[in-house]
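Might I ask for a little of your time on a matter of protein folding? The record follows directly beneath this note:
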Amino acid sequence: MRRLEGGLFVMGCETFYPEEAPLRPVRVGPYWIDETPVTNAQFAAFVEKTGHVTLAEIAPDPAAYPGMDPALDHPGSLVFNSPASPVRLDNPGNWWDFASGPIGAAPRDLAVRSRGARIIP
């Protein structure tokens, strides 16, 4: 595992989901993160032992998403969607640029910061 120091980042979005606005500074404390992805076999063992149910397996609660398109009232609709353009795989920050809406900006911003980029002047 690798320890990330955490820090200040800008959370939210003013052009995607209205409930993510306004942009606001948020401080995240230090945390540990695995350096390698979890394999399918490791995750299957975790599910078997704990009975964990992923967000992808749960239909969204329409009360939590006012005005939600009824066509999205099924498991997977919050996490599986098609990108407007291909997501390049040579930079993990590209994924967070695409996926940060429902997930949150912290992982992407801290990943970028860990490579030496500045998020907040």
